[in-house]
Amino acid sequence: MANKKPNGAYNIAPIFDEENYNYWKKCMSVHIQSVDMDVWDVVVNGWFQPQVVANGVAQEKAKVDWSDDDKKKVQYDLKARNILISSLGFHEYHFVSHCKTVKAMWDALETLHEGTDDVKQSKINTLVQQYELFRIEDGESISSMQMGFTHIVNKLQNFGKIISNQDCTNKILSCMIRE
User: Fold this and answer.
1) Rounded mean pLDDT of the chain?
2) pLDDT value at position 178?
3) From residue 10, how far is each of 20, 30, 81 by CA, in Å?
4) Between 42 and 122, residue with greater pLDDT
5) DSSP per-residue codes, 60-124
6) CB neighbour list of residue 8: distance below 8 Å, 6 or more residues apart
7) Which DSSP state fits 12?
8) For residues 35 and 83, is the Cβ–Cβ distance under 8 A?
9) 162 Cβ partners below 8 Å, 6+ apart?
10) CA nearest to 124, candidates 147, 91, 157, 99
């Protein structure tokens, strides 16, 4: 059998359809990292500004004085912005089109879809309460209950609140005990 490439769009950035932001965010993170870890670094840490030190003071380096390495590092931001822009719909593009760096774009999308730190904490608190109060409903199937539970746990994980497998198992078992 000849070399056959796998089916699917493994080399194309995931398209954001204005829904399921956390899913898209994780897929985009993996996609950019697979392109180049240095490109991902500018998304997380910000772009590289070539500098020169004169009299002990760091100053922005004139573009004509950039080395090949400086140009390569500056290019990381442009590559990341290209990937990000190509994956956005009309609404999101216009929301971030004013941003000068990919980090600013990424942060703006996070704030738009996840909220500020206070909003995130409020969402976490609500989800923790849903988790703690979770029970199987009368007449509900096990698979339906499991899907609802998994949805809550995944949302918590998206906000950085990790619940161990053991805690999840214990919670499921306690949900199924009829009182």
Assistant:
1) 87
2) 56
3) 19, 11, 19
4) 42
5) EPPGGG--HHHHHHHHHHHHHHHHHHHH--HHHHHHHTT-SSHHHHHHHHHHHHH--HHHHHHHH
6) none
7) S
8) yes
9) 156
10) 157
Nearest to 33 by CA among 47, 44, 18, 21: 44
- The pTM (predicted TM-score) of the whole model is 0.67
Q: Which structure tokens are listed for 57?
A: 């003071």
pLDDT for the residue 10: 56
In this structure, the chain runs to a length of 179
How many angstroms from the chain centroid is the CA of residue 70? 27
Domain ranges of the chain: 21-114, 117-176
Amino acid at 110: E
3-state helix, strand, coil in the chain (%, to 5): 65, 5, 30
Q: How far apart are CA 143 and CA 135, in angstroms?
A: 13
Q: Which two tokens stand for residue 113?
A: 């879809």
Sign (positive/negative) of CA torsion 67, 68, 71, 73?
negative
Q: Answer for the pair 13, 28: CB distance below 8 angstroms, yes or no.
A: yes
| Distance from C-alpha of 36 to C-alpha of 127, rounded to nearest angstrom | 35
The amino acid that residue 65 corresponds to is D
Take residue 36 and report the two structure tokens written for it.
């180049």
Spatial distance between the Cα atoms of 60 and 99, rounded to a whole number of angstroms? 20
